[in-house]
Each structure stands twice: as structure tokens, then as C-alpha cells.
């Protein structure tokens, strides 16, 4: 169901696959769904995640040290599906791991595992044609990113590549928790709406329920990453799923007690 059909703001948390340990990822995915997540971004660990702030960089390092690979991430998605995960799973990562694995094989294997699409942070639209074509062949979504520095003409071009929604980066720079949202966010989103009718998800810096409420007034969905990882950090390796359940249920105002 789309945000417009549901008449509410959809919530899409980010989770680094393999963090805090590969054995915990499936349970965390299931917990996110039970706590009100409408979809989830599953981060593919990478050695040089330039678009991410220190919180997610650290999560990447820990996941890689634990031996998390792209194929391992797909196994986690498959296992989560076998245990009842039903919300969409978007694989978010950088181009190198997918290229090293083989783009066609990466997309085909991801589809077979039960993933629903890709967000490739560092893949320019002009270089994404083959990747997008293969995604379409496999009935997988390709979600491009638009930043505040993207020109209106380029927004129109990027919108033609997307097939489900656009990921709107709220600020220039890296991911990470922020106290306030950018003052020009509303104008940025309005500029995108002038060029496309596609649903819009806003990410980077979304970290509180207040942020979710504010973004919900101008966009269809919110993406929350560093704040989720920080909750896992704060758990100190003890019952991370319970901490995530409490945090996300508060953000989404979801009652999962029934």
C-alpha cells in the first residue's frame, strides 16, 4: 500500500546487514516490521561508505569484521522471508560490491532471495542504464537519489529512471543524526514535486518523532538510519531487538502488543 492510499507517512528504517552480528539481523528485521516499519533499507556493508556518517561507518566495519558478504546479506533476507517478513526490503549500498559480484547475478540472486529493489548511492544515473534494465527484467525496483544541489532539469531526468519512488537526500554531506531539519527542505521537496508525481521519501538526518511528523507534511515517507543504529549501539549487545521495538513503536505510534 502506498502512502497516499494509506493517508499517512510511511516509515522506512535502515539496518546494516550483519550489525551488530549476522546472527541478529533476521530478528531485527522481523522486529522492525512488528514495530510498524512499512519497508526496510538493508545496508550492504562496504569498506568505504563515503555517503555515511561515523555511526553507520562503524556499523559497516563491525559487520565486515564479522564476515558479512553480499551473498551473506541475501541469505539473511531469504531467512527473514522464511520466518514471515512481508514488508519490502530494499538493498542499499555502493556499486563496487554489486559490480564485483556481477550486476546481473547480483540482481537475479537478490530477487530470488526475496529482496524488492536497490538503492545504489554512488551510481550516477548516466551510468545506471544496464543496472536499471536488469532490475526491470527481474521485477526489482531501482530507487535513485536526489540531493538539494540537483538541478530541476536533472530532477526531471532522474525521475524518468525511477519506477516506484524517489529518495530525497535532505542535506548535502553524509548521513547522521541532526537536531533540526534543514530550513529549505520544504522548498526542495516542492521543487521535486514540480517535476514528478512519484512518491517521495526523505532521508539523511531524520532522527526523532518530531522530524517524522514534519517530513510527513511534505513527503510520502521518511527514512531513518543513524538513529536506528544508535539505538542498537546503546543496547551494548544486550537485547537489541527489544530496544529497537520500543524506539520504533514510539516513532510509528504502532501497538504491536496484539
What is the topology?
Blueprint lengths: L2 H4 L3 E7 L5 H13 L5 E4 L10 H12 L4 H13 L6 E5 L1 H7 L1 H11 L3 E4 L8 H9 L3 E2 L2 E2 L5 H10 L4 E4 L15 H9 L6 E4 L5 H8 L4 E4 L1 H10 L4 H13 L6
Parallel strand pairs: 1-2, 1-9, 2-3, 3-4, 4-5, 6-7, 7-8, 8-9
Helix pairs in contact: 2-4, 2-12, 4-6, 5-6, 11-12
Give a quick set of tags describing it.
258 residues; 12 helices; globular; 9 strands; 9-stranded parallel beta sheet; single chain
Could you describe the 3D structure shown?
A 9-stranded parallel β-sheet has the order 5-4-3-2-1-9-8-7-6. It is built from 12 helices and 9 strands. Helices cover 46% and strands 14% of the residues. Helix 9 links the parallel strand 7 and strand 8. The chain has a single domain, classed as Alpha-Beta Barrel (TIM Barrel). It is of the alpha/beta class. Helix 2 runs parallel beside helix 12 and helix 4 runs parallel beside helix 6.
Amino acid at each position: 500500500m502506498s502512502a497516499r492510499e494509506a493517508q499517512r507517512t510511511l516509515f522506512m528504517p535502515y539496518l546494516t546487514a550483519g550489525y551488530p552480528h549476522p546472527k541478529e539481523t533476521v530478528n531485527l528485521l522481523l522486529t522492525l516490521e512488528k514495530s510498524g516499519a512499512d519497508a526496510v533499507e538493508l545496508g550492504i556493508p562496504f569498506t568505504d561508505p563515503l555517503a555515511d556518517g561515523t555511526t553507520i561507518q562503524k556499523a559497516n566495519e563491525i559487520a565486515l569484521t564479522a564476515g558479512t558478504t553480499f551473498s551473506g546479506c541475501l541469505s539473511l533476507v531469504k531467512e527473514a522471508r522464511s520466518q514471515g517478513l512481508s514488508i519490502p526490503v530494499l538493498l542499499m549500498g555502493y556499486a563496487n560490491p554489486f559490480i564485483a559480484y556481477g550486476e546481473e547475478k547480483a540482481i537475479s540472486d537478490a530477487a530470488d532471495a526475496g529482496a524488492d529493489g536497490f538503492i545504489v548511492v554512488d551510481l550516477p544515473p548516466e551510468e545506471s542504464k544496464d543496472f536499471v534494465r536488469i532490475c526491470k527484467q527481474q521485477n526489482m525496483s531501482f530507487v535513485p537519489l536526489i540531493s538539494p544541489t540537483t538541478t530541476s532539469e536533472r530532477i526531471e531526468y532522474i525521475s524518468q529512471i525511477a519506477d516506484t519512488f524517489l529518495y530525497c537526500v535532505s542535506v548535502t554531506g553524509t548521513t547522521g543524526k541532526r537536531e533540526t531539519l534543514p530550513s529549505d527542505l520544504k522548498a526542495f521537496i516542492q521543487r521535486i514535486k514540480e517535476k514528478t508525481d512519484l512518491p517521495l521519501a526523505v532521508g539523511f538526518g531524520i532522527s526523532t518523532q518530531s522530524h517524522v511528523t514534519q517530513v510527513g507534511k511534505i513527503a510520502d515517507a521518511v527514512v531513518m538510519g543513524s538513529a536506528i543504529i544508535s539505538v542498537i549501539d546503546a543496547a551494548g549487545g544486550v537485547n537489541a531487538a527489544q530496544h529497537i521495538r520500543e524506539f520504533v513503536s514510539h516513532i510509528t505510534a504502532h501497538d504491536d502488543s496484539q
